[in-house]
Amino acid sequence: MNFLKHLNTIGKTIIIITHDMHLMLEYTNRSLAFAKGKLIAGTTPIELLTNPDLIKEDSLKTN
After folding, report:
1. Greatest pairwise CA separation for the chain in angstroms
2. InterPro entries under this entry (predicted)?
3. How many CB atoms lie within 10 A of CB 48?
């Protein structure tokens, strides 16, 4: 993960596809959410995980 952080600090965009929300929170500053094959959000990880409408639409677990 240090290598990915380094690439990001020199201006490279890194795409991580994960279901691990802790990983997302630790290593990203922008998150995309898809539901039913469509992009429903492009926002910060915190906004994604605290917005009730996005949580419901993306079927995210809250506990």
Report:
1. 36
2. P-loop_NTPase
3. 23
- φ/ψ (deg, to 5) at 6: -60, -45
Tell me if 27 sits within 8 A of 5, measured CB to CB. Answer: yes
Contact 14, 29 (CB under 8 A): no
In this structure, which amino acid lies at residue 8? N
Q: Give dist(CA 1, CA 42) in Å, integer.
A: 22
State the SS3 of 8-32.
HHCCCCCCCCCCCHHHHHHHCCCEE
pLDDT tens, 2-59? 888 888 889 888 888 888 888 888 888 889 988 889 999 999 999 988 888 888 887 7
Q: Where are the domains positioned within the chain?
A: 18-63
